[in-house]
Amino acid sequence: MGIFSAxxxxxLMDLLHHNLKDLYDAELKVLETLTEMIAAASNDxxxxxxxxxxxxxxxxxxxxxxxxxxxxxxPERQARAGIDGIIKEGNKMLAEAKxxxxxxxxxxxxxxxxxxxxxxASYGTAKAMAIELGETAVAELLDATLKEEFKTDEKLTxxxxxxxxxxxx
Length: 169
Known about the structure:
By secondary structure, the chain is mostly helical. The chain has one domain (12-167): Ferritin, core subunit, four-helix bundle (Ferritin, Up-down Bundle), CATH 1.20.1260.10. The chain is built from five helices and no strands.
């Protein structure tokens, strides 16, 4: 089995389509997971950050839908093992730490940052493809989300180092 679950890509445009479908699936799965993480978090700053990220993620889904529209495509999900594995690992960590609220918060941040790094890599790649293909509007939409993903990652690091990690010692 190759890296793609659909037909073999034959062009850079095919790869961009695959990436958009993967990102769409990932963002929708992240939305589902964020609700669970917010409920499990005990640190107020972490809860607030996750709430804000849920709102941003809803906007990111809409941006991806705009990307599909710009490319005359219907929004479509394509599951890939990457995000599924990160979410599965995060759920396992949360289950193992559930009796310790401070460790649960650390696990939430770790899982969230792994998701952010996956998304940063995916959005960066898709943006570069869109630029190469002259899909300027798509590249701009992807760049807006990419910037949000970097900010979320920075915010998670800040919350971890100032509050959450010291509380878990």
